[in-house]
Design a protein that fits this description.
0% strand
Length: 104
C-alpha cells in the first residue's frame, strides 16, 4: 500500500501545480498525458536515486525507505512543473512543412 501511495500520489500534485502555474484548466486528455509524463519522470528519477544515492540494490518499501522516497518524489513533483514552465517561456520550437514547400 505504501508503494502505491509513493508512486502515484506525487504525480497528482505535479499536475495540479502545472495547472496552477499555467493558469488554464486541462482537458481529460491533457490531464492524462501530463499525469503519465510526471508519473514516468518522477518514478524514473526516484528509482535511479534510490539505487545510486541510497545504495539500495533491492527496492523494498520499508517505512524508512517510504519516507525517503516520498520526500524525494514530492520535491520532484514541485520542481518538474516549474522547470516545464521555464522551458515553455524560454524555448520556442517552429515546425516547417517540407512537403508543401516549393523547390526554388
Amino acid at each position: 500500500m505504501l508503494q502505491l501511495i509513493a508512486m502515484f500520489a506525487p504525480s497528482f500534485l505535479a499536475v495540479y501545480i502545472h495547472e496552477s502555474i499555467s493558469k488554464k484548466r486541462l482537458s481529460r486528455r491533457q490531464f492524462a498525458a501530463f499525469y503519465c509524463l510526471f508519473l514516468l519522470t518522477i518514478n524514473l528519477i526516484g528509482y535511479a536515486a534510490a539505487i545510486y544515492l541510497f545504495k539500495n540494490s533491492e527496492l523494498q518499501f520499508t517505512s524508512q525507505f517510504f519516507v525517503k522516497y516520498t520526500t524525494l518524489a514530492l520535491i520532484l513533483a514541485v520542481v518538474l512543473p516549474v522547470v516545464i514552465k521555464i522551458l515553455n517561456i524560454n524555448v520556442k520550437i517552429k515546425l516547417v512543412d517540407v512537403k508543401n514547400k516549393k523547390k526554388s
